[in-house]
């Protein structure tokens, strides 16, 4: 099996595609031409098996804005969502976690231990690394972050929906989130009370 | 001009591609098969004109792990990089900002004012939204974050490089970063002293 490309190889590929590269319009040109921007933000994992262009069958780059981090976790992306909404204006958000995610195979504590073994005290107990214990729960929690953030425009938060992408079937399945079922909020509060 | 697809349309597209979807291997299966993971992390902007698959001519998903946020800013992605490195093991990082980036057309202060006009006091003076004043500087600063983070493995930080993608020519150009030129670090310290 061949090795994956290094940066040098990727830069060589960049040079080789210059000849066929089609220039992108400047923002000012796109605006002057009345180009309609995407209206959906897709937040998903950086896992190489999880490609929104494939699983949402995106036909054009303008079909969606794609934010990708480890797990597709919303927490570190709230300010990005706000910036996109203020600057471009967005209408809906899809939070898409996926089956067999790497984040379900480690815990934040495991990563903290590795990092602190290298540089003692470099990460505190509150350091998180996107770890997911329960996939549906993580989707619910992440959608919840947007619904309750004072920074996110209310109408956009209300149009945020949670999903799980099944890497085996290819299906994107909706997850019932707290706001869709007020009883779930109550159950969650009860469970969290029991944990204390 | 037609409107961009909404979530409902994207879910319809997902359903329509199920028939031709090829199942992805589970992590355990990939590991058992001795599959070699990607070795490069590409950090870049979520701008629809900036597609690393296109500008780095990625031939397979396994060519690189792609992290995307507003501007391709490293700050909110440090823990993601650590998680990827501990869980998979990474060799190099490319930080790729781009010309005509939306982040160069607004300031963090502009976004703070919009958000605080909606919900007074919801974002403080330290709230940042990825705004970039000087493109080369932002690349240098972001590479610098990794070089100086106690969380990032030293060898990986040393193999972090900064680039600017030109949306008109398609070229990815290297940016000389602080660590490559110690004199730049000195100049920066002097400039920051002068600002005080």
TrEMBL record, chains A, B:
Entries under Gene3D superfamilies matching the protein = Carbonic anhydrase
Q: Which UniProt keywords apply?
A: Lyase, Metal-binding, Zinc
Enzyme Commission code(s) on record? 4.2.1.1
One Pfam family name is Pro_CA
For the ligand (Zn(2+)), the binding residues are: 45, 47, 98, 101
Per its UniProt record, what InterPro entries does this chain match? Carbonic_anhydrase, Carbonic_anhydrase_sf
What does the cofactor section's free text say about binding?
Answer: Binds 1 zinc ion per subunit.
**One GO MF term:** zinc ion binding
Q: Which reaction does it catalyse?
A: hydrogencarbonate + H(+) = CO2 + H2O
Cofactor list: Zn(2+)
Per the record, the similarity remark reads: Belongs to the beta-class carbonic anhydrase family.
What task does this protein carry out? Reversible hydration of carbon dioxide.
The name of this protein is Carbonic anhydrase
Source organism of the structure: Talaromyces stipitatus (strain ATCC 10500 / CBS 375.48 / QM 6759 / NRRL 1006)
């Amino acid at each position: 099996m061949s090795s994956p490309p290094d940066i040098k190889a990727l830069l060589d590929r960049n040079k080789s595609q210059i000849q066929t590269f089609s220039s992108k319009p400047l923002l000012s040109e796109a605006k002057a031409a009345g180009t309609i921007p995407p209206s959906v933000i897709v937040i998903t994992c950086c896992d190489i098996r999880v490609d929104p262009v494939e699983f949402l069958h995106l036909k054009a780059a303008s079909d969606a804005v794609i934010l990708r981090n480890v797990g597709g976790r919303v927490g570190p992306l709230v300010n990005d969502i706000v910036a996109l909404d203020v600057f471009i204006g967005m209408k809906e958000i899809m939070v898409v976690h996926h089956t067999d995610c790497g984040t379900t195979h480690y815990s934040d504590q495991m990563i903290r231990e590795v990092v602190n073994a290298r540089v003692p005290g470099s990460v505190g107990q509150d350091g998180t690394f996107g770890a997911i214990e329960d996939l549906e729960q993580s989707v619910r929690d992440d959608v919840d972050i947007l619904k309750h953030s004072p920074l996110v425009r209310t109408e956009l938060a209300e149009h945020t929906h949670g999903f799980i992408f099944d890497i085996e079937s290819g299906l994107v399945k909706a997850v019932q989130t707290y706001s869709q079922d007020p009883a779930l909020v109550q159950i969650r509060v009860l469970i969290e009370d029991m944990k204390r």
